[in-house]
């Protein structure tokens, strides 16, 4: 309806005058539609002014030939439905609604958008059955609706949408469908359907006809049966992920043909076979290999051979074969555990950082006396001990028990990987012999498991109940405790802080108190204990520990360990002897508007050094992962200094993630006044650019010695505004910290101020990235020898 009006206008105007006028007419109508939608969503996008042309500088919109062709509302803080006005945008090619609180059904008018090629509706709360209007988008190539609460069965017509190349439907746990039917979509390149429970229950052989398929992800799909031989024909595969299913059998020979494979992930299944050393040579691009928690046996190539022959450390991002039945010597030697896995690699700025890349234990290594204990729980799918496995399976060729509710496929043997089928799907005649074997083996291993638990209990002083309660079990299924951090007991922490005595308190935060303590080995640590009001869920806390344990950088305060028991959620960090930057700039009782400076002010080159260090820490956070880790609270009191006055960022993490999502119920601020990204008020979201803004404020503080918000300061209490005005009119001399005023590099500080003002630009598009910041600081610091700085103080 709306569409025909616009077309009629087009014809009419074309008849009278030049094409440009007619186009304006259409886009004006599109502007009205967009403005109406914005009003319904109750958000304010300032540039969307009624009566103006959306192609004339409206945000979040792209135009081609005077018509709106792209609308990108990702993370725009929208709550509500998709109004039918969307159907006015008939030239739309890209529609991105992702990561908002969109809900409800899609309007039929969406079918007017026949040119739509890219539709991204993921991470919203639609909570509807698969929308039938999608089926009418006959030019759609890219559909992303992951994590969006879709439910019910994928309609049969969906599989007939031949234009589709990229499908992301993962994490819609209420959705069902038929995996084999995707073979109808002959152009598929990406098929990401994890956590969907398909009714065919197996990896369909016919999927091998999808010759263009590059990415296949069906983890947690409740799949039974084996890896089809026919998949060797999927020679464009780059990523294959079927982790956490119930797959059995071996890895077919034909997989050697998958020479483009980079990421192969079959962990947490019941695959069985000799260790596939052939992958290292057959797949030259392989960089992530997860075959943990299966039943592989034999001896993997040793580490030194992998290094010399296959450039192990530079080639692999992830290499994991823990929890199999592998022989040979422990790859990391006796003491190492998984620790030879802590790789030091150079990051993007040439920093040497530590990353957990490899995990090889536990297994059945020759130089480990018995690994029964470590396999209990952690390798929980294993029903056999190492001895039993090698006696019965490898030597006597008896298949191990199938996963529950499955039976051994007729004719399957150890050499063919002991393929199992879902019960009922196989013509299982009579009583399968292996069920008996399985039962006997199962009973005897139950005895061994209990024995193991008793021994374990004695060793670790765990209570027997704790192990079964699964609540805080370090080895439970759901949580692979990071190997790089120590798990402290409440008793230990209470002892070194004299029962969390106030005399040990060194700081307070929104989350609780920070205590100092000295470990038995003499190291001092800072102990952050969450107060009752800020306890997180067990899962959230674990996620935080896992994330923090992966972040290793010389300019980030190091996580030493944690404690999670009863009402205790504690993070233990390295102790930073010289306190925080705020104290060094403003004195002991640094507060806004209160300055009592220390006797010796920070020399200017030290300030430069601190600025550089903080920038490196932030850049690491931003580039560490996708999505990036956002610090969210960069400010001098979160910049700590070690005994060499080296700066390290503290208080980064994910626990502050939620508050900004809903402005109406949010009580906690996302960040600290004076450092908070002004665009936050516009979009209600913090981004890496928000950290850059706060970093700019810190730079200004280093240059000026002025606090971020000071209500006593002249006419301007906001430091950014204050410095901007003065610097632009009277230069560096008008803002420099008087305590270094007669001894500083004018050039360096002018440059830093310019950088600071760019970082704290109002619009995030004008701010540099941390990478760009580093490129500017790099030559400035290159003139100074770090060693010289470290001798200071
Ligand atoms: C929408 O914008 C975001 C960043 O603002 C970008 O990452 C994303 O790729 C865009 N979506 C599409 C479909 O282009
Ligand atoms: C899966 O979806 C749920 C809710 O829909 C969400 O909380 C969770 O973060 C999603 N998981 C991933 C890995 O995207
Ligand atoms: C296909 O999927 C892979 C892995 O998820 C991703 O890296 C790639 O960008 C996707 N390609 C497109 C065009 O979506
Ligand atoms: C590693 O494997 C290679 C090749 O199989 C062998 O020559 C070498 O001796 C092994 N090294 C160690 C330390 O086991
Ligand atoms: C290993 O690295 C060296 C030097 O970087 C390179 O010449 C060689 O081709 C690499 N070998 C393999 C198998 O990737
Ligand atoms: C790994 O082992 C080395 C040497 O024993 C030790 O210095 C280091 O702290 C260990 N790393 C981790 C993360 O356990």
TrEMBL record:
Q: Where are the transmembrane segments?
A: 435-456
Molecular function GO labels: ATP binding; protein serine/threonine kinase activity
Q: Kindly indicate whether the keyword Nucleotide-binding belongs to this entry.
A: yes
Q: What reaction(s) does this enzyme catalyze?
A: L-seryl-[protein] + ATP = O-phospho-L-seryl-[protein] + ADP + H(+); L-threonyl-[protein] + ATP = O-phospho-L-threonyl-[protein] + ADP + H(+)
Q: What is this protein called?
A: non-specific serine/threonine protein kinase
Q: Where is the signal peptide?
A: 1-22
Q: Which Pfam families match?
A: LRR_1, Pkinase
């Amino acid at each position: 309806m709306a569409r025909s009006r616009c077309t009629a206008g087009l014809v009419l105007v074309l008849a009278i005058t030049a094409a440009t006028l007619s186009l304006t007419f259409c886009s004006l109508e599109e502007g009205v539609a967009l403005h109406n939608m914005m009003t319904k969503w109750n958000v304010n996008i300032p540039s969307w002014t009624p009566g103006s042309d959306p192609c004339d500088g409206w945000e979040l919109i792209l135009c081609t030939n005077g018509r709106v062709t792209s609308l990108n509302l990702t993370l725009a803080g929208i709550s509500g439905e998709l109004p039918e006005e969307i159907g006015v945008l008939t030239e739309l090619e890209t529609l991105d609604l992702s990561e908002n609180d969109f809900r409800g059904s899609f309007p039929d008018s969406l079918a007017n958008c026949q040119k739509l090629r890219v539709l991204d509706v993921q991470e919203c709360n639609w909570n509807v059955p698969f929308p039938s209007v999608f089926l009418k988008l006959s030019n759609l190539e890219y559909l992303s609706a992951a994590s969006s609460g879709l439910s019910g069965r994928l309609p049969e017509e969906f599989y007939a949408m031949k234009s589709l190349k990229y499908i992301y439907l993962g994490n819609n746990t209420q959705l069902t469908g038929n995996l084999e039917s995707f073979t109808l979509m002959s152009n598929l390149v990406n098929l990401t359907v994890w956590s969907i429970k398909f009714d065919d229950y197996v990896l369909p052989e016919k999927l091998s006809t999808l010759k263009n398929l590059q990415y296949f992800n069906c983890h947690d799909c409740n799949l039974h049966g084996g890896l089809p031989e026919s998949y060797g024909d999927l020679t464009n595969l780059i990523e294959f992920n079927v982790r956490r299913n119930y797959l059995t059998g071996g890895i077919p020979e034909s997989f050697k043909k998958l020479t483009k494979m980079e990421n192969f992930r079959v962990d947490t299944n019941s695959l069985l076979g000799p260790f596939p050393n052939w992958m290292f040579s057959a797949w030259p691009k392989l960089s992530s290999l997860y075959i943990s928690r299966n039943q592989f046996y034999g001896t993997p190539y040793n580490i030194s051979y992998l290094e010399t022959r296959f450039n192990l450390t530079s080639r692999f991002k992830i290499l994991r074969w823990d929890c199999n039945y592998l022989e040979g010597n422990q790859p990391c030697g006796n003491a190492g555990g998984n620790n030879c896995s802590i790789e030091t690699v150079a990051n993007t700025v040439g920093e040497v950082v530590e990353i957990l890349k490899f995990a090889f234990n536990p297994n059945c290594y020759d130089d480990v006396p018995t690994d029964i204990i470590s396999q209990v729980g952690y390798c929980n799918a294993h029903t056999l001990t190492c001895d039993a496995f090698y006696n019965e399976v490898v030597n006597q060729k008896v298949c191990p028990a199938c996963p529950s509710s499955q039976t051994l496929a007729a004719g399957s043997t150890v050499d063919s990987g002991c393929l199992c089928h879902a019960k009922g799907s196989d013509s299982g005649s009579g009583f399968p012999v292996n069920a008996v074997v399985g039962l006997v083996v199962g009973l005897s291993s139950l005895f061994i498991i209990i024995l193991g638990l008793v021994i374990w209990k004695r060793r670790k002083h765990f209570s027997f109940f704790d192990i079964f309660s699964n609540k805080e079990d370090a080895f439970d299924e759901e949580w692979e405790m990071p190997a790089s951090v120590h798990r402290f007991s409440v008793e230990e922490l209470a002892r070194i802080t004299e029962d969390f005595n106030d005399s040990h308190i060194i700081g307070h935060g929104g989350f609780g108190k920070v205590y100092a303590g000295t470990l038995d080995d003499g190291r001092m640590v800072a102990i952050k204990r969450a107060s009752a009001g800020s306890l997180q869920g067990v899962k959230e806390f674990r996620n935080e520990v896992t994330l923090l344990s992966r972040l290793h950088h010389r300019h980030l305060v190091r996580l030493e360990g944690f404690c999670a028991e009863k009402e205790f959620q504690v993070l233990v960090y390295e102790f930073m002897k010289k306190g925080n930057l705020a104290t060094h700039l403003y004195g002991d009782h640094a507060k806004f508007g209160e300055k009592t400076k220390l006797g010796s002010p920070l020399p200017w080159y030290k300030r430069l050094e601190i600025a550089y260090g903080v920038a490196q820490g932030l850049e690491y956070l931003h580039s560490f992962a996708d999505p990036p880790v956002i610090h969210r609270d960069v400010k001098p009191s979160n910049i700590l200094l070690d005994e060499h006055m080296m700066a390290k960022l503290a208080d980064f993490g994910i626990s502050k993630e939620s508050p900004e999502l809903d402005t109406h119920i949010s009580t906690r601020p996302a960040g600290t006044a004076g450092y908070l990204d002004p665009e936050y008020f516009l979009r209600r979201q913090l981004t890496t650019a928000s950290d850059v803004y706060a970093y700019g404020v810190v730079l200004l503080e280093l240059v000026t010695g002025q606090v971020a918000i000071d209500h006593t300061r002249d006419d301007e209490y906001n430091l950014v505004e204050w410095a901007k005005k003065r610097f632009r009119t009277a230069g560096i001399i008008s803002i420099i910290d008087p305590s270094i005023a007669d001894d500083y590099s004018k050039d360096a500080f002018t440059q830093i101020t310019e950088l600071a003002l760019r970082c704290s630009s109002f619009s995030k598009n004008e701010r540099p990235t941390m990478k760009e910041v580093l490129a500017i600081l790099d030559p400035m610091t290159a003139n100074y020898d770090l060693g010289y700085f470290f001798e200071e103080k």
